[in-house]
């Protein structure tokens, strides 16, 4: 997925990219997703996220709370959500589909 970033046009390309990622929401300077999966699926998903995040040099926040897996992608500079965070979100969606289809 490719999107234009920056202020080249008046459109919000981040919002356009997020429409392709159901369940992901933008909240201030982060994007996030909550998933209802069991503990073994959480463990498998977390491992897959770690591999992709390391390759992209990003540090997502993944935590388990009350049967839910919460994922937050916050830009390293704390300022602007980049193509990297959106790419990681897309890869997480792929991993989520893989983990939940293994049932």
Automatic annotation (TrEMBL):
The keyword Lyase applies. The keyword Thylakoid does not apply. It holds the Pfam family Pterin_4a. Its EC number is 4.2.1.96. Transmembrane segments: none annotated. Belongs to the pterin-4-alpha-carbinolamine dehydratase family. This is Putative pterin-4-alpha-carbinolamine dehydratase. It comes from Phytohabitans kaempferiae.
């Amino acid at each position: 997925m490719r999107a234009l970033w920056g202020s080249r046009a008046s459109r919000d390309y981040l919002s356009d990219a997020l429409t392709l990622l159901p369940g992901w929401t933008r909240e201030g300077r982060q994007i996030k997703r909550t998933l209802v999966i069991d503990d073994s699926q959480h463990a498998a998903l977390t491992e897959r996220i770690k591999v992709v995040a390391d390759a992209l040099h990003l540090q997502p926040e993944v935590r388990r709370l009350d049967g839910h897996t919460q994922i937050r992608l916050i830009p390293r500079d704390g300022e602007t959500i980049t193509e990297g965070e959106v790419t990681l979100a897309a890869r997480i969606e792929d991993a989520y589909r893989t983990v939940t289809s293994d049932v």
